[in-house]
Amino acid sequence: MVKLVWDQTGERLYETGVDHGVLYIPSTTGVYSAGYAWNGLTTVTESPSGAETSPQYADNIKYLNLVSAEEFGATIEAFTYPAEFEQCDGSASPVPGVQLGQQGRATFGLAYRSLLGNDVKGQDFGYKLHLIYGCLAAPSEKAYATVNDSPEALAFSWELTTTPVEVGTVAGKLYKPTASITVNSTKVAPARLLELENLLYGTAAASAQLPLPAAVIALVGSGA
Question: Model's pTM, two decimal places?
Fold first, then answer.
């Protein structure tokens, strides 16, 4: 038997920050083969929904709980966005310099990074890569305000809904489709993590792309 001990050195963990945002536009075959750096990303708020219980009664007692499907949603806040995101925000430019609103909205993928810290290394302890698939952005509010003695930059905000993509069978277990994957840098072999980041962020020889869940699992798992 082992006695529980709290708050040992190196185990006081926390998570903070958001950076390395990347927008991915899928091809007609659903492959996220084109990635674009998202500058000015300030907040990503993940908002899962569903997974609600529905009690079922029989024999005058609570017989079981049925659980509804879980969905992944999020809110993005940023000071700016890539030009390629306009098609995802319901905009179109028939001629340079003219932008039409209320157009069709394209789906997209998203990647961003949050920092992991502890009481020894601070924010240099590690990070998490967040990969989001099948995103669709809803119309957002834009508040244009006068410049005054306390000026603030206009902040854009989008509510996202997602459509899960297939995961498949891993080590003999079939997993449900998902719209989100998280990769923890402190638990992945450095060489495999570098390969994944080369895919996500691109290299001098290859463009950035967002691999599908099965490819991420195969790549990371091969170095476990």
Answer: 0.91
